[in-house]
Amino acid sequence: MASPLSDPSQSTLQTVAVVGLGTMGTGIAEVLAKAGRTVVGIDISESQAAKCVATLEASTARGVERGRLTEQERAEILGRVRTSADLRTAADADLVIEVAPESYEIKHQIFRELDGIVRPETILATGTNALSVTRLAADSSRPERVLGLHFFNPAPAMKLVEVVSSVLTAPAAVTAVTDLALDLGKEPVAVGDRPGFVADGLLFGYLNQAAAMYEAKYASREDIDAAMRLGCGLPMGPLALLDLIGVDTARTVLEAMYAASRDRLHAPAPILKQLSEAGLTGRKAGRGFYTYEAPGSAVVVRDALTPLEGSDLVPGREIRSVGVAGSGTMASGIAEVFAKAGYEVVIAARSAEKAQTAKARIGKSLSRSVDKGRMTAEAAAETLDRITASGTYEDFGGVDLAVEAVAEDLEVKRQLFATLDKVCKPGAILATTTSSLPVVACARATSRPQDVIGMHFFNPAPAMKLVEVVRTVLTADDVHATVREVCGRIRKHPVDCGDRAGFIVNALLFPYLNNAIKMVEEHYASLDDIDAAMKLGGGYPMGPFELLDVVGLDVSLAIEKVLHREFRDPGLAPAPLLEHLVAAGCLGRKTGRGFREYAKR
């Protein structure tokens, strides 16, 4: 038989042993068997091996029920899988994939035993996402055949596979497993050996920051999770995801990352240790950040930390009319949202022409909604009629709520709030849409700081469901209650947060984006591989570099500078590559070039 190392082009790695038949090992076995490989599943626990077979039987039965498999195909798949408790049954394997618990001792023992069992040309792959592949390879008698093969959970559904090379790995071994991954219908990404690799290296830093944010009581677990789902389009919030992954697993990965990087952003938040040591490791234990119906259940049940419905007993103020200050995309989007909800709206800008342009933009947006069948032409016309365009803020005299959406410049906003203070009637609420500046600084520019609050909408405002409601230490309770009630009326989801840089979404999003840039700076992975890893492995709607170019590199740099100034953490310092691109005028899609180049419109 051809050697996988000597002639990878001829190798199809037909027989594969999977060591460790937990959820991941079982999923990998299913993927291999469906792709026509002979699979030897090995686990020291006979009950775990039996569970693996039962899972495969159930999964393939569902495939038949849904018309994806015939009964004959199902029988062939199940016939390709045999299980054993004896590692020696891997003797004939072309490839061994180890997915045992994340422990050097356990993995070392498996690799040492395999050295005396498998053929010299057999490739040994570890499924670790936290431990050093190089360290495992160094203890093998043939380190050139050892590499990492990191699947993502659930393996049958997730497309990403990270192929991890150490400095000792033979290129032929990498080629052989890369070809196998492609044959399995996966999208392999080649990465070097560092804790977390690409996807988890970026993901776990973000999860750690979310845990620290919750631990600091800055925001509730529900609001943190809702903010990241609705504000970033993520499939799960970070705390719910930590419960799914396992709090103990996350802590292990972060410990390995911190040992390698010494970056404080990777130092596990103390709450991860507390929950782990208390046995509150997430879904598998029935309790972690949330409480579940039973161990292993995905159903969240009420506990002592669950907020009560309608618990805000403070009566709010009556809001009938709204003023929106600004003429850009955000201002017109917010005006559209309020008008659709039935409010009388005044959109005011520095000139009547700018205000009319903003109203015309709203008209085009409403026309698109009519064309797509989302609203009737009559409803669109009524919505537009509720909007008055004005070239002076004096027309805000009768509004109950004034929302500013002007340039993200503190002095500009302070001057505007001083003007609003003069023209708006007593009792009117003054809101800022800032994403990174201190709300209290806007409040202090007025004689009524108790009436000032943050309402951070997300772009495009008509489509995005999230509003971060930012109260300062001076904001009145009834103002806070009013804004939350208004969010409900305009069909937005409010999340509460305090007046500090980045609020929830940007404080968690931009350190993640910054770390992605650092990976490129260090030549660890390419833009395309990082974007692919986060979309395929993390379920992100856009890769970090796609998102940076859409947001604008100048905007991103400004937010990262604000976060660095606020928290003084060296790990938050903007990546030099980002600063260089901004200095060169490469600001993303709007200039035709950022991290990538774009065709001119």
From TrEMBL:
Q: Does the keyword Oxidoreductase apply?
A: yes
List the InterPro entries: 3-OHacyl-CoA_DH_NAD-bd, 3HC_DH_C, 6-PGluconate_DH-like_C_sf, 6PGD_dom2, NAD(P)-bd_dom_sf
**What Pfam families does the entry give?**
3HCDH (PF00725), 3HCDH_N (PF02737)
Q: Is the Oxidoreductase keyword given for this protein?
A: yes
Q: Which domain of life is it from?
A: Bacteria
Q: Which residues form the 3-hydroxyacyl-CoA dehydrogenase C-terminal domain?
A: 196-292, 502-598
Query: Locate the 3-hydroxyacyl-CoA dehydrogenase NAD binding domain: which residues?
Result: 15-193, 322-499
The residues forming the signal peptide are none
Pathway(s) of this molecule: Lipid metabolism; butanoate metabolism
Homology family: Belongs to the 3-hydroxyacyl-CoA dehydrogenase family.
> What name does the UniProt record give this protein?
3-hydroxyacyl-CoA dehydrogenase family protein
From which source organism is this entry?
A: Streptomyces tibetensis
